[in-house]
Structures are given as C-alpha cells and as structure tokens.
Amino acid sequence: MEARTRLLALGMTITLGCSHSATTAETTDPLAANGSSTPSVTPDTPARTVDAAAIENARKRSPIKSDEVVALFPSYARRSADGTRWQFELHGWIYEPEEDDIVRGKALDEIAEGLPTDAASSPIVRSRLAMFLVDNERGKEVSVTIAGKVFQLPSSAEDGHFSSEIELDDVDARAWANKGMLEVAALTRPSDTRSFTTKLMLVEPEGLTVISDVDDTIKISEVTNKTQLVKRTFAMPFEAVPGMASAYSRWLGEGTHLHFVSSSPWQLFKPLSSLVEESGFPPCTYDLKRIRPRSVPKAAALLLTDPLETKPPAILALLDRFPKRRVVLVGDSGEKDPEVYGLVARQRASQIARIYIRDVTGEARTADRYARAFDGIAGDKWAIFTDANALPPSP
User: Are residues 109 and 88 located together in one domain of the fold?
Assistant: First the structure.
C-alpha cells in the first residue's frame, strides 16, 4: 500500500456558512472551480471550510497536461475505530490517449482476433480498444480536492495508476456530504477547464452490502462462448441483464452499499459504469483488474483470468474492512462464482447472509458442481435463479 497521502493545509481557510450566496460558492468552492456543482448544505450540517490558498497552489503546480486524461474511480470510505475520521483508498489513472490511426493499426493487429471483419470501421471497437493502447503517464503526482481540502497523491506507477490511503475528519465529511457521498475532483492547471471527478461513498460500520459479479450477472457477456464474449466486450453495445437493476434497487436503500467485483480490466470501466448508470442501478463502487502497460495479447486473453485467483482476495478485503455488515453475494454459473462464493462463505460464515447464483449453464441445483462449491454451507443460505424478477423483495 502506498504511503498515506499528506494533506496540504497551507494558506487561508474560508468558512462557508449555511446561507452563503451562489456568488460566494462560485469563487470559493473547489468543486465549482473545476466545473462541478456545489453539494447542498442544510442548517443541520456543520459549516464548510475551503482551503482556497492550497487549492490555488495545487492548481498552479498541477502535472496534468492538456492532452492528458485523469480517470478517478468511485470509492468507499469507512469510519475509524473512534468514529471521528473516515478512511478510504483513492484510486485513479492518468494517461494520454493515442491517435486513432495507431488504434486501428496496432490494436486491431494485436487484439482483434475473434472480432468481426469490419471491426476497423466500428466506432465501438475503436473506442474500447483505444483504452488498451493509451500512453500511460508514470511519475505524476496528482492532487485532488475533497470536502474543501487538498490531498496530494503518490506518483503514478508504470501503468499510470495511482492510489493512496486517505483520512478525512468526520466534521468535514458531514459538512460536504450529499446523500451519503462526497465529490472528489482532480486539480487541473488554472487554464484547464476540464473536470475529472468521482464519488466517494460513506459506508457506516453496520448495514447491508451487496457484492456482485458483472459478466452474465448484471451484464450479458456470454462468457461460456468465447467468440461471443469477445464480440460483446469489444464490438457491441453493453446490454444489462433484464431485471437486475430493479432487483438491486429493491434491496438497496439508505445505509446500503453495492460493490462490483469483476475480472474485467479497468480499461473497460467507462462503458461499464455508463451501462450501470443508464440501466438504473443504485450508486456503487468497483473492484476491477489492473493490466500491466502495453501487455496487449489477443482480446479473449484479456478477459480470461481465473476468478479464483483474483476475486477471493478482493472480497475478503472488503469483509475485513466492514466486519459488522451483513453481506449478500450475487453471481452467475458461467465462470466460477459458485466456487468463489463458497470459498468466501466458509471463511466468513458469520458475515455472509445469502448467496444468489444466476443460472446461465442449465445446471440443476443438485449438480455435483454445486455440491462441491457449497460444501459445508447450509442449503437455505444459497439459491439459484434464472429470472431476476423472481428474486425476493429483500435479500
């Protein structure tokens, strides 16, 4: 884990009362300065403070060039043991997009096996393959603003990714939170009006967490058919599994947390997050796969890592951070979700409330596979479904 991020607390601090004017918010709100809207303030919340000098200084020395892009990924925060602070890992990626001719030439030669013969002319193919061929920016120390404060993040790695553990006072979090979330914005240079933002979800120690797979659980991917998997991933619009957004919306209300754990790479985050938002899924966070820079094998190989290697550590890490939360696991039978979830449930029996598996392989509940996957787990703790509308109103 990277060293804990340092807070740049230099310069003048401005306090924003509950009745500040729109003009004041425009000139002092760090999010508005980067093109984002100001979170709402109610009389019950603490006054907001903005470290305007630190924000100005961070923007002046911003390493983000005009031809570079910063992707900030949604994250969740947990309370400290004494309840006075919020702790979270902020993860992002800085890169320079490649020119379209490079995408057509290099990407299609190296990745396009299994794609349609007219792939080079497809805007979908070009846009998705382009993310695997970006110029990852190494050694960039991006600064972000959260709740009126500035945080300088560690240098980006060879693949352009950066991450750091951050702490935020509860008073500041409550002052700036909007529906249990805070906005995070990367600080660009003063002449750069672009906005790179994400959401930080404040997750309390107790409540319901739904951990969900992506491919063939909420997104139709046809993982069992490798040719179709490649086409649906790189050459077709993403398609949501009918009824899953409604089911999750029924389950998830105030105080809940939806977290997607998938073997899909971060290069596919943009179309995936667009699908999730447009389909009406509740606010969520993600745990996807990092692929080392310029490692560009055939398209199918990008998608076919063993879930038993990548998913259990990611799920167990989340459970360790929230030992008191009730957890529901949702996956499908196409890959190894039953085996992954069975392994997790045996190790964290007290935390796992239910397991739901979407059937895409036609295997009966009595199949040997399920007997092995859920060995030692009570029969009423796991269920198989084919239609999301058949899922219970509450998990």
Answer: no
- Whether this prediction's pTM lies above 0.70 is answered by yes
* Structural domain boundaries, residue 198: 6-95+136-203
The DSSP element (H or E) to which 286 belongs, if any, is: strand 284-289
In this structure, the answer to whether residues 80 and 190 fall within a common structural domain is: yes
At 1-38, the pLDDT tens digits run 444 454 444 344 444 443 333 333 333 344 444 444 44
Whether the CB-CB separation of 308 and 338 falls below 8 Å is answered with: no
- In angstroms, what is the C-alpha Rg of the chain? 22
Specify whether the CB–CB gap between 130 and 97 falls below 8 A. Answer: yes
Q: Does residue 199 share a domain with residue 239?
A: no
What per-residue confidence (pLDDT) applies to 306?
A: 83
331, containing H or E segment? strand 326-332
Same domain flag for 183 and 85: yes
Rounded to whole angstroms, the Cα distance separating 372 from 354 reads 17
Residue range 249-280, pLDDT digits in tens:
999 998 999 999 998 999 999 999 999 999 99
395 domain residue, yes or no? no
Note whether 106 and 66 are same-domain residues: no
